[in-house]
Amino acid sequence: MANFRAHVLLCTGTGCTSSGSYAAxxxxxxxxxxxxxxxxxxxxxxxxxxRCDLGPVALVHPDGTFYRGVVxxxxxxxxxxxxxxxxxxxxLLPRDPVTNSVAATQQDFAFFNLQSRVVRANCGIxxxxxxxxxxxxDGYAALGKVxxxxxxxxxxxxxxxxxxxxxxGAGFPTGVKWELMAKVPTKPKYVIxxxxxxxxxxxxxRSVIEADPHSVVEGMIIGAYAMGANRGFIYIRAEYPLAIxxxxxxxxxxxxxxxxxxxxxxxGFDFDIELRIGAGAFVCGEETALMHSIEGKRGQPMxxxxxxxxxxxxxxxxxxxxxxxxxxxxxIIRRGGPWYATLGTEKTKGTKVFALAGKIQNTGLxxxxxxxxxxxxxxxxxxxxxxxxxxxxxxxxxxSGGVVPASLLDTPxxxxxxxxxxxxxxxGGLVVMDEDSCMVxxxxxxxxxxxxxxxxxxxxxxxxxxxxxxxxxxxxxxEAVLEDLDRLEAMCHVVRDASLCGLGQTAPNPVLTTLKxxxxxxxxxxxxxxxxxxxxxxxxxxxxxxxCPLHMNIPVFLQLLKEDRLDxxxxxxxxxxxxxxxxxxxCQHSCENRCRRAGADAAVNMRETHRYIADMAYNxxxxxxxxxxxxxxxxxxxxxxxxxVGAGPAGLSAAFYLALLGHRVTVYDSAPNAGxxxxxxxxxxxxxxxxxxxxxxxxxxxxxxxxxxxxxxxTLKFKDLExxxxxxxxxMGTWQETLLGIPGEEAxxxxxxxxxxxxxxxxxxxxxGRKVVIIGGGNSAIDAARTSLRxxxxxxxxxxxxxxxxxxxxxxxxxGLEEGARLITMAAPLRVILDKNRRITGLEVAKTVxxxxxxxxxxxxxxxxxxxxxxxDTIIKAIGEKADSVVTQALGLETTSRNMLKVNPWxxxxxxxxxxxxxxxxxxxxxxxIAMGWGKKAAKSIDRTLTGEDRFEKLWPQFVYSQTIPPxxxxxxxxPERLLPVAERRGTWVxxxxxxxxxQAKAECFRCLRCDIKAPEATTH
Amino acid sequence: MNLEQLKKLKEKAQKQIxxxxxxxxxxxxxxxxxxxxxxxxxxxxxxxLDEIEKQSLGSVEVCVTGEIGMVDAEPMxxxxxxxxxxxxxxxxxxxxxxxxxxxxxxxxxxxxxxxxGQAKEKE
Lengths: 1021, 123
Fold this sequence. Notes:
The complex is a heterodimer.
Chain A: E1 6-11, H1 14-18, H2 21-34, E2 41-46, E3 58-61, E4 65-67, H3 75-85, E5 95-96, E6 101-102, H4 110-113, H5 131-136, H6 141-149, H7 152-162, H8 174-183, E7 190-195, H9 204-211, H10 213-227, E8 231-237, H11 241-257, E9 261-264, E10 269-278, H12 287-294, E11 318-322, H13 323-335, H14 337-341, E12 351-358, E13 364-369, H15 374-381, E14 391-396, E15 402-405, H16 415-420, E16 429-434, H17 439-453, H18 459-476, H19 483-498, H20 502-506, H21 509-517, H22 519-527, H23 543-547, H24 554-562, H25 566-576, H26 580-586, H27 606-618, H28 622-632, E17 641-645, H29 649-660, E18 664-668, H30 677-680, H31 689-700, E19 705-707, H32 718-724, E20 727-730, E21 736-737, E22 750-752, H33 753-761, E23 771-775, H34 779-790, E24 794-798, H35 810-818, E25 822-824, E26 827-834, E27 840-853, E28 859-871, E29 874-877, E30 881-882, H36 885-891, E31 915-917, H37 920-923, H38 928-947, H39 982-985, H40 998-1007
Parallel strand pairs in A: 1-2, 7-8, 7-11, 8-10, 12-16, 17-18, 17-20, 18-19, 20-31, 22-29, 23-24, 23-29, 24-25
Antiparallel strand pairs in A: 1-3, 3-4, 5-6, 9-10, 12-13, 14-15, 14-16, 21-30, 26-27, 27-28
Chain B: H1 3-17, E1 26-31, H2 34-38, H3 41-54, E2 60-65, E3 77-81, E4 86-89, H4 94-107, E5 115-119
């Protein structure tokens, strides 16, 4: 035998072979030969290593280098780099999304490093088609031990001591099951391995069989010996050809070696195994249906009892266990039941292989001890959802399981804990869903699977699942009524309680759990015909419209501008969004998050385009012309009086629509002018006051009255408002800064960011020192930083997490840093350092490290002992605002635990039927567009309440425009926001970002892919 | 097959996959950069592999690397003891290669004559 210096373990599981590992193998052989290394390097074909998404994967020993995407074309370079020159070939090294670094070896990869491999100990290490390699890793030693030294009863004792529970899903104690069967005197007896793995997204059984088939065979022989069976069957689906092939090779090798057949280990025990190939029916995973199928009958379930241990295959005692259960048996015998029982939890011992799938960075198989929290496997091992999306829920146990929402991420992976939540362990599938997953659609998807797979024997399952599916589809189309939810729930219970077998009994789980945890999402589909996740296509115009808090009809204004109809475009824009020039400058542009153009190159720059439209209109007589057209649609006076408290984005939006609907609207504000945060918090260089002036004038022209310097609770009495008006809308902003809770916070020279920005907006100059420290990472922190810079200070921004976690618009942060601000991340404020005159001299901070993942998928900062002082004389805290408790209490309305106003999410009504609320006092400090979206919805609801009609749509123009889908790739690359050069931005208060040129705005219109076109007929609004 | 035969089969098979199990005592790193290969590093490595096999040294793994850094001292071989010293040998010929295996890897004695200065760092 040649002495090889390295082994290349090349995965030849189903996943990797389909991405080309056999071609890679041939290329490797050829290249190694060319380099004269064929006697030094050995190629070993192994089974699945668990990362099929990175395939073909290879692991090089002895150095442990793990390569991904080893396709034939990259092999020559790999051989010359790694094997000839002796250095890792960087191009094929994986990037660990958890640590965000290149993983040189398998141990550097959190995905592998954090697993505990018991069942999968051999997977990816041995050649599954070579029995000697299995034997080298203690294979068949357990069988030898049992046949030579142990009685059958002793084997059962050991399995009982291990606490092993059936891995098929129900978790019945294996030792007890074996004991029941052993006691039955009838002969012959049978053992069966259930390899009819059929859950979408689960492939742990296939992987174990493909990578370590002998472990399953050995486990079955031991079990047969313990229970007194002499014949076994492995029931495996035909969709698993490679697993079937490897099992057959393993069985043949077993016979040849003498571990199968007559007189095994010369100890007089006989055992035969045969394969039975199933046709891929999900129901055949149910044991009674499975046995029918083995007998050659139609795979349909039977009522139990009798249980298989009494009357199973051909009426004889039969024991059925899952692949993973069988393959765990040899390890338990070798290392002892008590050892195995040290793994896992009190009630559930050992480890379990989970299949991570869906919206997760590291998809694949991960083996962890039972009791591991969902959070650890999803974030630490799985890396969380890709592209920084927010985790929403995880479906455990395949289509028979249920969803577990983000709030329950600390749930341990354990049979009982999951059952308590209405879900199941099942085979161990984990399908991860992020913010872009619609929970109604998820339920529909899984139910559709069960409905398809129902064998049809019992009506509750056959008819019930179909009826439930019809209802879910109706909800997804936006055609359902609220009563349908009750109907759906009732039907769930009938199907669950009356179905004959596990398929029907568990099919309602996804529906019941989503209804329980995401009922609001169902109601949103029904009441508002919206699918916030943007999945149900019938409920949205386009992804951008769906994501926009104001639901602006973006494709239409882009098309109108494309057709050179600037006036129509402005009319559409201003009707959808009454503050288009302001939002055009400061919006967080969530519309870009799901823009389909991003899949081709980059999202359409929708914000800058509607800003262009608005600026063009306001800077000419176009706005006046359009205003006249809008006023023509103004509804006749209703005689109803409405008070709006707060002239910020939410209040202004609501007032605009309510005035056009014919109501008498008065807006009250404590400030001397309208605009709220737009005017009194956002700095001039971002949003010039003259822009706000023009937009307010436009809204005023619709008939809105303003009363300024009227502060709620002081010059303005809530009681009076309520008595004098038919409806009141509370739309105040939150101006009160949250407390830092550190010593020295009350010092002179420490300002809340809004107080500082407010003063700056009034043209005052707060007594700012030379060195300013800003605490926070949001937009107001950046605003405060750039404002301080313009006042001539040196600015340092301190943030406790990493830069990627900063909630501020990334462009704003970048611009602030360009202008000279310094950014210190991973630092948490500890105390304000004061001199003897109680003047600020510095801020002491502690270095932080990133700890556990929170529900939003961000790692929480953990304070370390390492501290340092940042010298400064002024501190501005920008860590978020909250509602003023004096105001909320004075109103005497119901509040939430966070001291926010409690409203009906659908009507925006507070606990007082005449009083509605929108904006910051409902949502907590949010951005401009979100506040406006609430204002718009509240206006619609107030009008409906006052008039009993839905008149909102009457305000919109009906445009006819092209319904032709544009050719792909039009318009060129994305036009970024225009920006003055840094030198011109520094120290100046002028708008740092000029309006798009006509050319740029038009180019963006051409870039739009027109996702709104669904049928070739004209639709508007 | 009986238990005895299984044991024998296992011993034989274990050698085949020993390379994949971690926890070796020594790692031998042969410099196989251009100058190393030109000076005969390949012959040195194959000699060492043969010798390790002949003497049935189970706890040794052999890797290659690029230039170690002293071109005039090629072929160079570095012997790393897990958790211990690293010894660098220079101008290793076939004879020297055998000697490193017999003395250093087998008996744990350094071949002072070939050593070119020792890095005291721990792994």
